[in-house]
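On to our target:
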Amino acid sequence: MSETTYQVIIVELDDVVPRRCSEHPNLYVGKVIQDPYDKFESLKTKRSQSWYSGHEVRLRDDLMDFVPYMSKGEADKAVREITERLMADGFTVNQNTTVWSVYVIELDKAATSGDSIGYVYVGETSKPHEQRLQEHLMRARNSKTRLFSSVVAKHGVRLRPDLAPTEIYFSKKASKAAEVAWAEHLRNLNYVVEGGH
């Protein structure tokens, strides 16, 4: 009796959800126990209740690793890692449209001393900036932690989109790096900066 092996399949889809990056299409990433080419042919011809059914464009064998995984756990881990890599490159994977951005909140300048040109908080988020401002000001919490900065809760004035970068980021890691860099940029312009870490 042969052992079951798994492979990761990557299928390009039509725009079943909006693209995160206009140059990179929607993808389905999953694990299969049959040959990926056979599975793709099956997906195209047999309609199912799966969210991607009827949206298949082509097999993206150029993005696949063709590694046989000996257990479901190994295959699941590979799917997670490949998904993370493709998402960081800007692909929309398995309907996940999350993107991140850096935001700047003006703080009351009277709460700091010195001759700076302003007092600001720099953060990064996958949420709308106005929602993040309100979470800070309302001292929001979830079941695990607080969602606010004490300095913004005490001294927050308004969003400053004119001081924030316009780029979007396709991973939390890239967004965190941009947050740190943008905070340093504003410090170099002579702002007193909170957050940005």
User: Anything to note?
Assistant: The helical segments are 36-45, 72-88, 129-137, 150-155, 172-188. Residues 7-93 form one domain. Strands lie at 7-13, 26-32, 56-59, 92-93, 101-107, 118-125, 156-159, 191-195. The first strand starts at residue 7 and ends at 13.
